[in-house]
Amino acid sequence: MTETVARLHIALPDTDPLIWRRVDMPVDASLKMLHDVIQGAMGWLDYHLWEFEADDKRYGLPDPDWEDDSLFAAKNIKLKTLLDRGVRQLLYTYDMGDNWEHVVTVEAIEDGQPGAKYPRYIDGERRAPPEDVGGMPGFEAFLDTIAKPRGRDHKDAVQWHRGCYGKDFDPEEIEELAAKLRIGDIAKRRAAGKASFAKRKSP
């Protein structure tokens, strides 16, 4: 039996050229899983706060020590619930300091391929910014600095990125294999969870 999937386009709209990814997402997945998929697709390291905005509501990870009645738990809302309300675009913000805003657009809703495991990475272009680079102004300054080998701060910028990631920053390299593997691991865990649930429910 096939399942229904939503093809999603994920973009950092303030970047030029545009940094974007495309994924197939099962509609019965939670927004928490969508967060995990965006992290995997973009190559973020998932150590900052995040939230979704859709249908005039906010979804994220409520802090039990900080009451916020306007923030709903992302793990409790399924993508299908928003789709059924007519939502076709979400705003996902990662790192409230650097404020990386992603526009998540539903491109299509269709039957998945028989036997395929979802979520699934499809394609994309350009590498996401490094963590803690300072938002768009910092990212633009970083790109300008590493593009000038004889510049005053070039060496420091290169060494900073190497220290964080173990290699130089290439704005064109998005490491698709790594993204596919990260999202593939999510798909495997989801499939295992569904199989375990079905086994418990069987007589």
TrEMBL record:
The record's Pfam families line, in alphabetical order, gives: PRiA4_ORF3
Q: Which residues form the Plasmid pRiA4b Orf3-like domain?
A: 5-175
- Which superkingdom is the protein from? Bacteria
PANTHER family, from UniProt? LEXA REPRESSOR-RELATED, TNPR PROTEIN
- In its UniProt entry, what is this protein called? Plasmid pRiA4b ORF-3 family protein
Task: Tell me the lineage of the source organism.
Answer: Bacteria, Pseudomonadati, Pseudomonadota, Alphaproteobacteria, Sphingomonadales
